[in-house]
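Standup notes
- DV: blocked on the single-chain target, sequence here:
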Amino acid sequence: MSKNSIACSSVCYSSAILIALHTSLLASASTTSSSSMIEAKALLNSNWWGNFSYTDHCKLLGITCNGAGSVTHINLSYYCPYFDYYSFHPGKLENMNWTSLPNLEYLNLVECHLTGSIPEEIGSLSKLTRLDLSTNYHLEEIGKLKNLVEMNIHGNILSGPIPSSIGQLTNLTSLHLSSNQLNCSIPLEIGKLQNLVDMYIDQNILSGPVPSSIGQLTNLATLDLSLNHLSGSIPPEIGKLKNLVEMNINANILSGPIPSSIGQLTKLTHLRLSSNRLNSSLPLEIGKLKNLVLMDLGVNSLQGLIRAEIGDLTQFDYLDLRHNLLTGKIPSSIGQLMNLFHLDMSANQINDTIPPELGQLSSLAHLNLSWNQLLDQSLLHRIEDLDLSYNHLEGQNPQYGYDCLPPSLAHNKTARYEARNGSKKKIAMFTPIISLPIIVFLSFLAFACFRGHKAQKKQIETKAMKNGDICSIWNYDRRIAYEDIIKATDDFDIRHCIGTSGYGNVYRAQLPSSKVIALKKLHHLEADEPAFDKSFRNEVQMLTNIRHRNIIKLYGLCLHNRCMFLVYEYMERGSLFCSLRIEAEAVELGWTLRVNIVKAIAHALSYLHHDCTPPIVHRDISSNNILLNFKLEAFVFDFGTARLLPPDSSNQTVIAGTHGYIAPVLAYTMVVTEKCDAYSFEVVALETIMGRHPGELLSSLASQSAPASN
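- DV (later): unblocked, structure below
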């Protein structure tokens, strides 16, 4: 073959390759373009974004595409509040042709007011690994989402049973179905989710037993089944969860024993089984849980002795065995729990003497042994919050520096007790919180709160409450018995809890007079800390001197050995935060009402800053701390972190407040001024108008202004 022929053949061959390659690229580009057009059409037909050009679909709010123009991320969690402004709304998930989005990896539609069910087509998205549809309130059904790694659908109105098809989600590592209306029993198929690390199915209305198949979830680290109607016994298969760190099955109707297999959960740090009907005795195997930090078995029917093996749990800082049927004596081995901070064994049938080893626990700050049959006590003078009332204690008490019996020892075997100096003192038969700073503060409070009622002061201070309880209410019904509060709230049952605030939970209580009040009950653990004492003083001191129509009214407080709470005016519509996020309530908040809410907050802050001497800075203005009455009028709430601004003071402080509402400048200067509230007010004002927290908007504005400041 001649050289010319070879050259011609080579050129022809190369040309053929180039032509084929070009044709392939054109075909690929055509395919990519076609796929992109299909995806754009799917977005257009959903009507979520209104009308737009096909070429612009990757620039839509919340859309992220790859280099080929294919949609990989849909994140509308921030943009949903703008939908009404632009006259479009996600509506139903069924409106989207999900099969046209084959490369979708991430779908986040938090708080987008979705309705209907989760379509099965989402389950065909083979690349979808993360799905977050939480807090939509109106999703009704779980779909078949086989490839998911993370699923979060908490805070909707999902009802009906958890489908058995959930067992097909074998790639799941995180499952959040809490705060819905799921009922019936937990399906056995839940045991097929063997990659699951975190499972939250709390706050539903699930019934029936805890399935034994749950023991197959050997990678599980967190299990939360609390606040349901689960019954039957705890399955022994629970002991197979060797990686479990936290277990919470509080507030169900479980019965039977705590299985001995629980001793196999050697990584467990938090065990919560309170408010059930568990009976039998404490298993010996509990002593094997060497990493246990918190154990709450309160409000059950546990019987028998308190095991000496409990002293082997040296990591303990919180132990609650209250309201059971435990008998015998407190084991001396409890003296080995050197990290123990909180110990509550109240309302049992414990007898004999209090072991002296308890007095050696240097970390123990809260001890409640009331309502038992204890006969004697030991050196417990180090404990800040001590309650030994309602026992059989008697005799000399040389360890206390009181001239008469401390309230923590009231209601014991005799009405007389020998004080330190050997003289006989009559016991005052009442049982308030006994921390000395609180007692001193109560004296101050009596003066501050009743200074406008001097004519009645003597009668108020000397009149004994029934059954020895102290509950001081002013500008309302004068006095309300502690028992009335307990009855109205079913002993502060969670069914009456309407929210959380500052250092405690807030409850609704309807009194025998048919009047409704709000109660802010302070948490036990937090009530033991110095920060709590300061917060409590602040809240009462501020509110007893404040008079403004847009600031919540404080009616009084109640001090009792079992609990402490503040009594407030009741706000029928709850917090602004919730009203903005529940669709039915948000619809009621038209523009005029929203503007009036913002104006009310502004008037309240203006009063605090300019009409109070010295000025008061709230320091925790947030939508959670703005309450609405039945007229949708706004009131500022929660003065636990408030601070007076005396003149000639630097006003330096630690940061306090709610994340997302704290003025950024405070992180640098640590100086409290009225501007701290002003910034928080601006955030709440934007949130009120937009319908949700403007976090990403503020971050975007901050990032845009940063280069300009350089």
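- Follow-up: The longest helix spans residues 3-45.
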